[in-house]
Design brief:
Layout lengths: L4 H12 L2 H17 L10 H22 L7 H5 L5 H16 L3 H11 L5 H8 L3 H18 L12 H7 L12
Length: 179
Amino acid sequence: MLAMVPRLRAFAVSLCGNADRADDLVQETLLRAITHIDSFEPGSNLGAWLVTILRNCFLSEARKRCKEVEDTKGSYVQSLRSAPEQESRLGMDEFRAALAKLPADQREALLLVGAAGFSYDDIAIICQTTTGTIKSRINRARTRLAILLSIDSISDLGCDDKIRAILDSNNGSCSAQWR
């Protein structure tokens, strides 16, 4: 098998046009050949078997590369980054604890408007009360949560859209002031 390496490398260079990629291709070929040595039939042409493996490796790699998109400026990679989840999980745990301290009617109204997305009028129908009462409950709930969470403005919430949607009376606007 080792005697075939120079011929495999020459064939790989002719396929790739790049010596480094050719070396990687030969290495992958030898790895696959050793892994699947039990499929080699003794007495058959070892060189042909290795060249077939090399060719199949090359074609598989070429198919994969056709689906890849080159990102020379790195802008796509930048868009794939995500913020660490630890802070948002801690923030959500703190938010849930504060939410549990609200009276049931305020918590219900706040969750219906913020989490479920209902209008004040719809919530009034659901809760069998007036729209003014719902507005009052939601305002009191938001004020109480702001105190419990030590929030002076909506920008103190960071980037957690779930919490922001529930607490923000302007539906996501960062300019809303709490106190």
